Structures are given as C-alpha cells and as structure tokens.
TrEMBL record:
It holds the Pfam family Peptidase_S8. Residues 524-541 have a biased composition (Polar residues). InterPro entries: Peptidase_S8/S53_dom (IPR000209), Peptidase_S8/S53_dom_sf (IPR036852), Peptidase_S8/S53_subtilisin (IPR051048), Peptidase_S8_Ser-AS (IPR023828), Peptidase_S8_subtilisin-rel (IPR015500). The keyword Oxidoreductase does not apply. This is Subtilase family protein. The lineage of its organism: Bacteria, Bacillati, Actinomycetota, Actinomycetes, Micromonosporales.
Length: 786
C-alpha cells in the first residue's frame, strides 16, 4: 500500500512537471522566434513512459493484493496511452483539425487494444451497461460532466464546424479510453465486503482513479490545451468513486458508462472552446484568452471539488439511498439546458474557425517600370503603374477560382498586392485548393475567437517628457529641428499596427485626415483608435509632438493589422494594400485605390510567425511591389535575440525592407534584439535605433515606456521623413536613401553574452548592428547636400 501511494504521487509529479515543462519550452521557442522544437514532446513522452512506467509495472506484477495490482495495471496502461497521445503534438498547432482527428483515432485505437488486453475475463464481471434505459448513476455522471462543461460554454467560443465535430469525437474517444481503464472490473477491487463500507471505495478508489485521470488528462489536447484538463479531471475520480459506491450498494455495477460520459464532457470544454494557438505568451495581456482559460479552469476545478464532496455525501454515506432514474434524468436535463442557455445567452455562440489564404502561382510582373521624375511626382507615377499591373494580374488570374469559391459559399476575399484569395475552408478545402494548377500554396489565416468580455483598453499613466526624450536626443533628431529647420513637414508616415489613438494630444494634429487615412479590417471602426497601445506608442516615436517623435512635423495615416497582439497573413495584406493605394471607408481596394495618396514611408513593428499562418515567402511579393512603387518599408528585426539567425518572421528578413534592431542608452545592442544572418545569408539588421525603455504616447492622453525593436523601428521611419522633408527629390529614391542612412550611421556596441557566446559573433558585426546606430542629424545634412 505504501508503495502504491508513493508510485501514485510520483506519477502525478512526473506527469504534471513534464506537461508544464513541455508547454514552457514551446512558449520560450515561440517568444525567441526560433523554429518549433519538434522533438520536445517526443522527449516528454519518452521520459514520462520510462519514469512512470517502470514503477507502475512493478506495482502491476509484484504485490500480492489484487487491488494493488489492479492499481498498477490501470496506471501502467494509462501511462502507455499518455506516451502515445503525447507524440501527436508533433502536429503543428496551426493544423488543429488534423491534430484532433489524430487524437480521436489514436484514443479509439488505444481503447480497443486496452479493452482486449485488460479485460480478458470481462465475462466474470456483471455487465450492467447493456441494460436500457441508463442507470441513475450513469445519468448522474452525465450531469457531472455537463457541470464541468458549463464554465467553458460561458467563457469560451467554438472554432469551425469541422474543428468542433472533431473535438467532440476526440472527447468521446478519450472518455471511452478512460471508461476502459476504470470500468466495472477496476471498481470491484475496491469494493470491500458488503456495501456497508463505501467510504473506503470513495477514498481509495477515488485516489487511484484520480491518478489514472491525471495521466489521461495529460494527453487530452495540444500544447496548452491539456493544462486545464490536468486540473479538472483528477477530482472527478472521487465523483466516479461515489457513483460506483452507490451502484454497488444497489447491487448493479455501473461499468464504464459514468466514466465515459463524465470524462468525455469534462475534456470537451478545453478541446472545443479554446484554441491552443491562443493559449500563448503572445496573448498574455490582461483579460485575454489565457486569462479566460484560467478563469474557466478555476471555475471547473471548483465545480469538480464540489461535485466530489456532494456526491460522496449524498451517495456514499452510510444509509444513503440511490436517486431514482427520474430524478437523475431530470438533473442531467436541467444541466444540459443550462449549458445551452448559457452558451446562447451570455456566452459567445457561433463558429469561429480559421480561414485559408490561397496564394496563386502567377504574380504580377513589375519589371521595366521607369523611374520617372525625381521626388513625389515620379513616385506617384510608379505607384500608379504598380497598382494597375497588380490589379490587372489579379483580375485576370483569379476569376475562375473566385467564382468557384463563391458558388461553394466559401466567402472569398481577393487580394492583389500578393495575388491571393482568402476563403473559408478546412483541411478538405485546403487539399482541393492545393491540387489546383493555378495555386502555388495554401496558408492558414489565423482567426481569433471572441472574448466573453472586452479586455480593458490600455491607458498611459506617465507625464510627457517635458523636452526631447533621451532616445530622440541619442540619434540627434532634436538638433535637426532648430539647427537645420527640418521637422518632417510634407511627408506622410504610414503606421500598420494595433491602431492609433487619434485623440492623443501628441498625435491629433498630425493625422492627415480625409476619407482614406484610416482603415480597420478587423473591427471596421471609422476613426483612429487603439485598444492595446502598441500602435499609438510606435506612431508617437515616429511623428509625435512634444519631444517624443523624431519627425513631429510629418503627418500620419493608420491601419489596424493586429487584434489583441495577433495578426494573420490576410490582415497584414489588408494594411499593406491600403498603404500602396488608400481607399475610402467601405470602398473596393481593386477599384477605389488612390496610389497618389500613398504614404511615403511605412513603419511596421510586427512580424508574421508560423503560428499566425505565414511561411517565409508569404509577404515577399507585397514588399517587393511597395519598393518598386517607391514606398520605403521599415520593419522591426523582432525581439528574438540573442540567438543568431533569429530574424526570420516576415517581413524583416526581406532584402527590400529596411530592418531595424534595438540599442539601449549606452548604444549597446539589447539582449532581445533579433540577429542575422537572415534567410539566404542576407545581412540583417540594416540599422539599429533606441529600443530600451522608450517613452512615447499611449492611449488616453498619457505616456508609457516600452522596450523592443518595435520601439526602435519608428525612429528610422522618422529619420527618413526628416531626410525627405529636407530634400523632396529623395522621395521614392530608396537606393540613395538607404545609402545615406548606412553611410551616416554611428557606432553601436555589442555586450558580451557569456551564456550565448555565439551571439557575440553571428557571422559578423553586420548581422548584429547592421551599419550602426541611425544618426538623424548626419543623415539629414547628407540628404540636403545631395
């Protein structure tokens, strides 16, 4: 018995630790911008099977007591099943339907195998499950499962139709697996003598069942989605023990039916109502998906504990009677109605599946476009020709596919900056599209599920700097204004980010205005706004007034490509298209675009990693087209340091993008700043700029300090605005502009990282700090001289 207790504790410790470490590794890799560590979960699976399997095997073979051997067999079988289920996490989270299908099939196969191996003498055990109608304890198991599902129906949201159906199948298969492990043969070993001693069944059987369910829960979902089940299922072991105590008293063993229903409904919540891609450090902001998953998990844990206590008191105490089938059925019916009412009422009804981005093989030919006159006149001519060719190519090549998708009611949305179409569809549609001759590849376009309540809007609480901020002075921008008389007037900066607080005192007067200066493809708002603060901060560093912006005389236009700090390929394209050819609110980008109203330089403090659906070349045609049009794209290197080659997420690695890393007050490269070389050996970043504790505007009229290459990027965009304001003939001349920036950059140092010695080299200084620290004063003087 002591050995069983120690083995059970060890199994829980190893399992919970392994699952936590595996998820933490996934998140660390994601935050560092590294390639997904495919071997993480196979290593966790092997370690768990070896560390837990060995003692449970001994427990299944050596003790004399049948109950202890039964305990060992159940734990050993559950451990082996966990190992197989954990291996499925090699499927990337972005392919959730494929994972759920594999989970359902694997759990069903394990159920069949274990049923045959564990229950060869099954005929010796009364098989009450074949009786109809269901026993009261089975109905009470259904009621308990629905009670565990209730918080998820309230606080979560469903994915697509296929994803939801596969989640239900996977939950049912996991319930069946648990039913095999904890069926009537299992519970008979904990039924001592007559029904007069039910407390022993509840306590001992509940503990053993709780450990078994911990092992099952650890395999129930992708990385992150299994963590709630680790809290919800173990207390359910005592609920099941109480139900089987009541069934034993009535002389009618319940078998695995209560287990199947309770476990199946218990894991359905996190499997169906939470997207594992959103249980991530990318959404750690207050009251986002991780917060609500934690709330639903906490509520479910409280329900499970209350059910365990209540069922034990009502069903397993001496002299307790078994509820009638009518009472048990009514209880289950009431809870089923409650789940439906809560989900359709205060919950978030509907289906919120991912969409697909279909990239066509033929992209527009932009060669041979003449440079034209210097300055904005020539830039406008080039931009108009680029826009014309892009739209013509898309119209010519997309027609048949768009008509077919419309006929199938898949709601296609065409794009021209990359010749692509966003559409509804799951794995089947994706396979069909991938096989079409005109299609190059099909990407998943991540779609966020709604929150039960809106996250609180970000608010700045710091006062204005009272003079030029340190970061503005470090690059000499504050000298440009009085000494050279240049503030960026006449230049327009485009910001694609989380939005911009258009009413902020540092930004309100700089908004260009008109019906084509703001676009929100997420929420379709009509005026500039920002819920997270990120975009307000970056725009403030580029053009903000009051000492926070590099080019306070420049104007700005804005587009929302991030929602709750997540984007997808289609939303990034929406904003980049808007920057090439702005269009009025409600207009058609294909017919109503105005290339002459395109901003001059774009600041982009975002990247599109694989978890959002991008592959390395997803946005390559877009940045190439913008460069051909004479629009300079400035992009963040990413907060993926200090690892070499960590500038990987589009658009930062692209050669026609001006990629910016971050330094601190001492001109030293920050630890987090992404490093090159980029894909194909391209030297990146191009430049560095201040990005440590930068003070800038924040929604609500206040200010905040933030770190990141996101903060460094708008400094360079602001310097370009100053250069082009000082010499309008440079507008659209990207080659000369880049050369001046490179030739006038100042020195920047690299702090030695003893824990990452290779990060001090990364192939050369150009892959750490690029040409050096951007120098606004020297660059503007050189631009004016040119």
């Amino acid at each position: 018995m002591v050995a069983a207790v120690l083995t059970g504790g060890w199994a829980v410790l190893v399992t919970v630790a392994g699952q936590g470490v595996g998820w933490a590794v996934d998140q660390a890799v994601l935050a560092a911008g590294l390639d997904r560590a495919v071997l993480t979960w196979p290593v966790v699976a092997l370690g768990t099977v070896l560390l837990v399997g060995a003692p449970t095997l001994a427990l299944a073979l050596l003790p004399r007591a049948p109950a202890v051997r039964a305990t060992g067999r159940a734990w050993l079988a559950a451990t082996l099943a966990l190992g197989a289920l954990t291996l499925l996490r090699t499927v990337p989270p972005v392919h959730q339907e494929a994972y759920l299908a594999a989970l359902a099939a694997t759990a069903a196969l394990l159920t069949a195998v274990l049923d045959r191996l564990l229950h060869r003498r099954r005929a010796a055990v009364p098989h009450a499950e074949a009786r109809r109608p269901p026993q009261p304890v089975t109905l009470l198991g259904v009621a308990a499962g629905l009670a565990l599902l209730l918080p998820w129906a309230w606080l979560g949201a469903l994915g697509g139709l296929l994803e939801t159906l596969l989640a239900a199948l996977a939950a049912a298969a996991l319930g069946a697996l648990a039913g095999v492990l904890l069926d009537a043969a299992f519970w008979t070993h904990f039924t001592v003598g007559t029904p007069a001693r039910p407390a022993r069944l509840v306590l001992v059987g509940g503990l053993v069942a709780g450990v078994t369910l911990t092992l099952v829960a650890a395999g129930a979902g992708q990385s992150g989605a299994q963590l709630p089940a680790l809290f919800l299922l173990p207390p359910a072991g005592f609920v099941l023990a109480a139900l089987h105590a009541a069934a034993h008293r009535a002389g009618r063993p319940a078998g695995g039916a209560p287990v199947r229903w309770l476990v199946g409904l218990g894991v359905l919540g996190p499997l169906a109502f939470a997207d594992p891609e959103e249980i991530t450090v990318l959404l750690v902001a207050a009251r986002d998906v991780p917060f609500w998953v934690a709330v639903a998990t906490g509520a479910g844990l409280a329900v499970a504990v209350l059910l365990a206590i209540g069922y034990a008191v009502l069903l397993a105490r001496p002299g307790a009677g078994t509820p009638s089938r009518r009472v048990a059925g009514a209880t289950a019916a009431v809870l089923l109605l409650a789940v439906a009412v809560v989900h359709l009422g205060p919950g978030r009804p509907g289906l919120y599946g991912e969409r697909l981005l279909v990239v066509l093989r033929e992209q527009a030919d932009l060669t041979g476009i003449p440079a034209g006159a210097p300055g904005r006149a020539g830039r406008d001519v080039r931009a108009a020709e680029v826009y014309r060719r892009l739209v013509a190519t898309a119209d010519r090549t997309q027609g048949n596919l768009r008509r077919e998708l419309t006929r199938l009611r898949l709601h296609p949305t065409p794009y021209y900056l990359v010749n692509a179409i966003e559409t509804d569809g799951g794995p089947g549609v994706r396979a069909w599209l991938s096989g079409r001759p005109e299609v190059a590849r099909v990407l998943v376009s991540q779609r966020l599920r709604p929150l039960p309540a809106a996250a609180p809007a970000a608010r700045g609480h710091l006062p204005p700097p009272g003079g030029p901020a340190w970061n503005v002075s470090l690059i000499g921008a504050d000298r440009v204004w009085p000494e050279l008389g240049v503030t960026g007037s006449g230049i327009v900066v485009g910001s694609s980010d989380s939005g911009v607080d258009g009413g902020h005192p540092a930004l309100a007067d700089g908004f260009r205005g008109g019906d084509d200066s703001w676009y929100d493809p997420w929420s379709h708002t009509r005026t500039p706004n920002d819920q997270s603060g990120h975009g307000t901060h970056t725009t403030g560093s580029a053009v903000g007034r009051g000492g926070i912006g590099v080019a306070p005389g420049a104007r700005w236009v804005g587009c929302v490509n991030l929602d709750r700090n997540i984007g997808n390929p289609a939303r990034y394209l929406d904003c980049l298209q808007f920057m090439l050819a702005p269009f009025p609110l409600g207009g058609d980008p294909f017919t109503d675009g105005r290339p002459a109203r395109a901003p001059d330089v774009l600041t982009n403090s975002w990247g599109c990693p694989p978890i959002e659906g991008c592959d390395p070349g997803a946005l390559r045609p877009a940045t190439a087209a913008l460069a051909t049009a004479g629009i300079l794209v400035v992009a963040a290197a990413g907060n993926t340091g200090p690892y070499c080659g960590s500038i990987a997420d589009p658009p930062a690695p692209y050669p026609d993008v001006l990629t910016v890393g971050a330094v601190n007050r001492e001109r030293q490269l920050t630890t987090f700043s992404g490093r090159g070389p980029a894909t194909g050996g391209v030297d990146k970043p191009d430049l560095v700029a201040p990005g440590a504790d930068v003070l800038s505007a924040y929604p609500g009229g206040g200010y905040a300090t933030l770190p990141g290459t996101s903060m460094a990027t708008p400094h360079v965009a602001g310097v370009v605005a100053l250069m082009w304001s000082a010499n309008p003939a440079l507008v659209g001349d990207l080659a000369r502009t880049r050369r001046i920036l490179r030739d006038t950059a100042g020195p920047a140092g690299v702090v030695s990282h003893p824990n990452h010695p290779s990060a001090n080299r990364c192939g050369g200084e150009a892959d750490l700090v690029g040409a050096g620290l951007v120098d606004a004063y020297a660059a503007v003087r050189a631009a004016r001289a040119g």
